[in-house]
Amino acid sequence: xxxxxxxxxxxxVSFKEALFRGLADDGGLFMPTEIPKLSKDFFNxxxxxxxxxxxxxxxxxxxxxxxxxxxxxxxxxxxxxxDAPLVEIDENIKVLELFxxxxxxxxxFGARFMARTISYFREQSDHEVTILVxxxxxxxxxxxNGFFNIEGIKVVLLYPSQxxxxxxxxxxxxxxxxxxxxxxxxxxxxxxRMVKEAFADKExxxxxxxxxxxxxxxxxxxxxxxxxxxxxxxxxxxxKSLIFSVPSGNFGNLTAGLxxxxxxxxxxxxxxxxxxNDVFPVFLKTGIFNAxxxxxxxxxxxxxxxxxxLARIIFLYGNPQRIAEKIFSCSFxxxxxxxxxxxxxxxxxxxxxxxxxxxxxxxxxxxxxxHLKSYNGIVLETAHPAKxxxxxxxxxxxxxEMPENLKxxxxxxxxxxxxxxxxxxxxxxxxx
Length: 432
Ligand SMILES: *Cc1c(COP(=O)(O)O)cnc(C)c1O
Hints:
Elements: E1 3-5, H1 15-21, E2 30-32, H2 40-44, H3 51-63, H4 69-79, E3 86-88, E4 93-97, H5 107-122, E5 129-134, H6 138-147, E6 153-160, H7 166-173, E7 179-185, H8 188-200, H9 202-207, E8 209-212, H10 218-221, H11 226-234, E9 241-247, H12 252-262, E10 269-274, H13 279-286, H14 310-317, H15 320-326, E11 327-331, H16 334-348, H17 354-370, E12 375-381, H18 389-396, H19 404-410, E13 417-420, H20 423-431
Parallel strand pairs: 4-12, 5-6, 5-8, 6-7, 7-13, 9-10, 9-12, 10-11
Antiparallel strand pairs: 1-2, 3-4
Helix pairs in contact: 3-4, 3-11, 4-5, 5-6, 6-7, 13-15, 16-17, 16-18
Bound molecules: pyridoxal-5'-phosphate.
């Protein structure tokens, strides 16, 4: 499979090249040149396949000509060594729990898969690789964990000072070893801009082999399509219309769902659920895209004012009308999000985190508008509620049980380097 740029102004590359470059030469994001449909047999037999078998089938489509099947299987078995269970809330609504990985958020899928593919390709050369990542919280810890102690790889994380939760900060800053955390005096958008500037800086890229691991990297994106198929395989009644509600920030998760859809996954509609950082729902409504500065919310991993994967969605579908045929989108305030957490808990005793709650509210909004009576509505639960104890506990007046590995991480010492949002300081750090 070859990969092209969403800007269509640079040549085709292999998966390996797309993986190491992160961004195309023309500034675009990489996408597969074609998205083949999976066979009827695969869908007919899907409920007899394990999550890892499903993942291998999907991965082979894109990587089969560059990674031998046995190696690809090892990469997947090792990267995805945890489940994504579909939990039934009621007859119509289900929650796909994507938080059973080591950092308790869905970004473990992409980060662990990417770390192992980089490690595989790096074995064929002896360059040290520096992974440069901007994180609004969960990306960084997933990447740091995914790459921790992998030989020949350094990780530099940029995160906005005081704009990630205490737990997220602990997860980002306590690993040490080959992981460095930079605390940026600015917003997540500043962090993303600085990372982009570093990739565009000829002096840096001539001295260091840089690679990105945030959601722009195609190796992060592709494995996120695996669990859409797995969710489908876990449904009891696959004849009802299927709707995925995806809590969205940079729209990588949703784009991975669109790829699954283009591979033939039979579904009715996606819902892009956002917090008050609502540039995407506004874009679908008005046809006009206006990037905005991000605003802090209680679903802070979705605080993005200029979602990078929008370029991929436009690449797939062209214009806002066609996008709106596939995707319904709406946004919710923090107060509404808290009510969503409360409402779901009081009806079902299910404790959802603030990101998942935005997804739950958006699904309900869609059902209100479409009057569907019988459906499979799947909310992607992107993080474990114990990662946001302040919000969840003050909303529900219940104590959340901390998973063991999280408890251990909270006791470690934070180690960071604090810099301003001026690119030159990042450059000095990288070259120094
Ligand atoms: C990153 C993240 C999101 C947003 O995912 P995107 O792929 O950036 O849209 C949602 N919820 C949680 C918990 C996250 O960490």
